[in-house]
């Protein structure tokens, strides 16, 4: 198809498509003589993914590029792909925030021990993000007790079990990698929305005023 | 204390402090004759909270102002304060994203029914956020099955129960309101971090490759 058709099917204006190609988020189309460039269904598909990452996931162009690069290695192990997606996404999460404190990181390590999580977890990029949140609660005057952290950890494990189960159920490697990438971003947004609804439920249930 | 001391205690440069006062995030100090302006401990405290909201919570100045305004009404019911905090925070979450589709919203309503959550939940601001995530999964080619949404809902309920329990345990109304506000923002970041660690644990546990 030509770019006009790609614009129509994807809902993305032509200049934006060309920008994504320049930024290497989208593979270039195939030049077929003269000024004609042909695009395929894979471009429609990739454009939808890009929009999900940028608009709902709120990734920068640079981070979206790093995440999408993981799609070009569909045969790497699931654990590694998760890590690539997580690291790319973390670049945005930690921009212009202070480094996590040693105390915050120690509390995350202790949490991992209490949860009985694998030793692999200690170097995970999420440890720094969680430690920053723990630090920020403390410096805002509300240090978090262990039982609160443990409730969050149990919920995170439940969510991660659903994530990994869904991913492991997909046989096509490219498709599976894509779900890992898009799910890492969009799952956060889903959790944010549902947590707010659940807060409304619990306050109603406890009849708090 | 003078602004130099406030800068030292809060780690915030004087021009930034004056900017926050102009933007009404921070109450002005008290003029005490000549060019002297006096600040108190409440300014140190509020500055830490502002930094937590802006740097870790990634709120815009406008949204942070709306959230902080909730602190000036410490006697309002818990359910209402949660709602104020949620709405202020949602302004950033939904910027420049398409409206949720009727299908996405219908799936959230069905989820609320299946979870047995209160009828109060249907109008919650989180419903729109969750519906946008559900839409984005679908348009990226990965529509989410109900059992996946239900796993997320169960986890969200667990987190919300910890949130509300912590908040309800605080007797001082101003302090309680502050935890609701700061916890709504920072709890999201905590969940993001712990979800990534838990994904690493589950992939290791299942020995996926």
Explain the layout of strands and helices.
Two copies of one chain form a homodimer.
Chain A: H1 3-10, H2 14-22, E1 30-31, E2 37-38, H3 41-56, H4 61-69, H5 78-93, H6 102-115, H7 125-139, H8 146-168, H9 173-205
Antiparallel strand pairs in A: 1-2
Strand content of chain A: under 5%
Task: State the helicity of chain A in percent bands.
Answer: 55-70%
Strand line-up in the sheet with most strands of chain A: 1-2
User: From the structure provided, what is the oligomeric state, counting identical versus distinct chains?
Assistant: homodimer
Cα distance spanning the termini of chain A: 59 Å
Principal-axes geometry of chain A comes out as elongated
Query: How many structural domains are formed by the residues of chain A?
Result: 2
User: What are the secondary-structure elements of chain A, in order, as H or E?
Assistant: HHEEHHHHHHH
Task: Give the largest interface.
Answer: A-B, 92 and 92 residues
Give a short account of the largest sheet of chain A.
2 strands, antiparallel
How many separate helices of chain A?
9
Output mean pLDDT of chain A.
86
Poorly predicted regions of chain A: none
What is the CA-atom radius of gyration of chain A, in angstroms? 21 Å
Alpha-beta classification of chain A: mainly alpha
Protein name (chains A, B): MerR family transcriptional regulator
Organism (chains A, B): Herbiconiux daphne
Pfam family, one (chains A, B): MerR_1
InterPro entries (chains A, B): DNA-bd_dom_put_sf, MerR-type_HTH_dom
């Amino acid at each position: 198809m030509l770019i006009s058709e790609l614009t129509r099917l994807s809902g993305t204006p032509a200049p934006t498509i060309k920008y994504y190609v320049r930024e290497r988020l989208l593979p270039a189309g195939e030049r077929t003589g003269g000024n004609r460039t042909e695009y395929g269904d894979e471009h429609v598909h990739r454009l939808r993914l890009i929009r999900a990452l940028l608009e709902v996931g709120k990734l920068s162009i640079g981070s979206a590029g790093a995440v999408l690069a993981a799609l070009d290695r569909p045969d790497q192990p699931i654990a590694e792909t998760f890590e690539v997606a997580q690291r790319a996404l973390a670049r945005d999460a930690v921009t212009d925030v202070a480094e996590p404190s040693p105390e915050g990181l120690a509390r995350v390590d202790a949490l991992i021990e209490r949860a009985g999580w694998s030793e692999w977890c200690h170097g995970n990029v999420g440890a720094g993000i969680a430690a920053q949140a723990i630090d920020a609660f403390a410096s805002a005057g509300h240090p978090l007790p262990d039982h609160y952290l443990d409730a969050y950890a149990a919920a995170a494990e439940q969510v991660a079990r659903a994530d990994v189960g869904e991913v492991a159920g997909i046989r096509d490697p490219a498709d599976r990698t894509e779900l890992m990438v898009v799910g890492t971003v969009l799952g956060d947004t889903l959790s944010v929305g549902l947590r707010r609804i659940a807060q409304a439920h619990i306050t109603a249930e406890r009849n708090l005023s």
